[in-house]
Write a structure and sequence with these properties.
41% helix, alpha+beta, single chain
């Protein structure tokens, strides 16, 4: 553990931790009694340059529970960052890391990663919270952040989950846990909104310069580097929305303080993968108005970018001079924001064509795709299995239709669509086998369904972590057949329909 702690630097030059007290408060983590390792990602450890055996060290659980921090010298204390944001479309004012502490950075193989303890205790930004996370939510974040990575979707990672028998009150009494998050950056849209809302332009510029210098140095070559930064956020956010929609992932709380400036999936709370397809699916039980439903996610991503653009306005347009600066800055921001539509719609169209195994672009493809989603919606056909089973259809006859067809109550509606699809496939140069291989590389067989996570959580509550390890291993290879794990790819059981996730999840 000495090598691990030595590798983590909370004040490395150019890091977020080096920005100073205007951006964060340094404080020790709250002690967590008798911690134990619940889950450990060897993949994430390797990314950080840590040996796979590091979790076997008796000090590992204490360290990543935050227990050593009271003894660390003041300059090395962890930090909670301050930010603000719009929550459910309403300005919420100052927020911040209410239960997360940044440990610092690790530099390995030419990459720099920040480590953060989520659930490490009260901070100055906890508001009415207790600063803790629970075992349930920590396991869900650990599993999903790693699963999303292996799906090829930009995301924060998770090194470990540390548990404790310390009681924590949510809807009921649960036990505490800390998840170690890993990311190239945890800077959010809300960080920019915070300094804009307080008219702290110098701090706003410092933050923007940090992001540009660390992640988008090419922006310096543009006439307006800060406008170029907005453009990068538009690009990465649009791409992320394509990724989410393409696998049926619902984030659940797309507040501006939960949006990454790098276009990463961040803050896994009440998330969920759609089982039976419902375009209006709401994964967050707390979202009574459906603001963050599946179909609205791209629109909300676009709305959040407007909030980011507003926060960046004081930095934009310096090249025009003071007389024209404000007017031209607004015009430039609006033009850059329109790039979201120009990137998202064609991006999703291209992705759905690929999911259907269509190499060529033809007129009418969008109608074919829309018709599929419509019949899936009406029949609540399973999202993941539908696309996976469509790889078995033949362009010649209906001999391979059954696996997908059986997911639809209205078989005639599916047959009508399948015939249209078959006619479209007849225009494709690839044979069925080659098309199936290509489709199975983009349509996962395994995703983190709620009932799979819940089963792992129930075992973990009894100190049995074998199911968690087995599920994590399956999710590391989501596109492989893994016939020995067929049960993880099946339809959810009846009891899964009663599962609910909320902001405490």
């Amino acid at each position: 553990m000495a090598e691990v702690s030595a590798a983590i630097d909370s004040r490395r030059e150019g890091s977020f931790g080096s920005l100073g007290s205007a951006f964060m408060t340094r404080l020790p983590a709250a002690p967590l009694p008798s911690p134990y390792v619940v889950g450990f990602s060897k993949d994430a450890a390797a990314m950080l340059g840590f040996a796979p055996s590091v979790a076997d060290d008796p000090a590992f659980a204490d360290y990543f529970a935050g227990n050593p921090t009271p003894d660390w010298p003041q300059p090395s204390l962890p930090y909670a960052s301050v930010y603000s944001g719009h929550q459910f479309g309403v300005w919420a004012g100052q927020l911040g890391d209410g239960r997360a502490l940044g440990l610092g950075e690790v530099d390995h193989a030419g990459m720099r990663y920040e480590l953060q303890l989520k659930g490490a205790g009260l901070t100055p930004y906890s508001r009415m919270g207790d600063g803790r996370a629970v075992l349930r939510s920590s396991i869900r974040e650990y599993l999903c952040s790693e699963a999303m990575h292996h799906l090829g979707i930009p995301t924060t990672r998770a090194l470990a989950v540390i548990g404790s028998d310390q009681p924590v009150r949510r809807e009921e009494i649960e036990t505490a846990a800390v998840v170690t998050r890993v990311s190239t950056s945890f800077v959010r849209f809300g960080h920019f909104e915070h300094f804009y809302s307080q008219d702290r332009v110098d701090d706003l510029r410092t933050l923007a310069d940090h992001v540009i210098d660390r992640f988008y140095p090419q922006c310096r070559e543009q006439d307006d580097p800060y406008l170029a930064l907005l453009g990068e956020a538009v690009r990465t956010t649009a791409d992320l929305m394509v990724d989410w929609q393409a696998v049926g992932f619902c984030h659940g709380v797309m507040n501006t303080d939960n949006m990454s400036i790098l276009g990463l999936t961040i803050d896994y709370g009440p998330f969920g993968f759609i089982d039976g397809f419902d375009a209006n699916h709401i994964c967050n039980h707390s979202d009574s108005q459906g603001r963050y439903s599946y179909r609205r996610q791209p629109q909300v991503g676009y709305w959040n970018l407007f909030c980011l653009a507003q926060a960046l306005l004081p930095l934009l347009g310096a090249q025009y001079g003071e007389a024209k600066r404000n007017e031209r800055a607004i015009e430039d921001a609006q033009r850059v924001l329109e790039g979201f539509k120009a990137r998202f719609a064609p991006g999703l169209e291209a992705r759905t064509r690929a999911k259907l195994g269509l190499e060529l672009e033809r007129d009418g493809d969008d109608q074919l795709v829309n018709a599929l989603f419509e019949v899936m919606h009406k029949n609540r056909a399973d999202f993941t299995l539908t696309f996976r089973h469509l790889a078995k259809l033949s362009k010649h006859d209906a001999s391979g239709d059954a696996p997908a067809r059986d997911l639809f109550l209205d078989r005639a509606a599916f047959d009508a669509w399948a015939n249209d699809y078959r006619r479209r496939l007849s225009e494709e140069p690839r044979d069925d086998a080659a098309r199936a291989v290509a489709m199975n590389r983009i349509n996962p067989r395994f995703v983190l369904r709620n009932h799979l996570a819940e089963t792992a959580i129930r075992h973990a509550r009894e100190k049995d972590f074998t199911e968690l390890e087995r599920l994590a291993a399956v999710l590391r290879h989501p596109f492989d057949e893994q016939p020995e794990h067929d049960a993880y790819a099946g339809l959810p059981p009846d009891w899964a329909s009663s599962l609910e996730v909320s902001c405490s999840s």
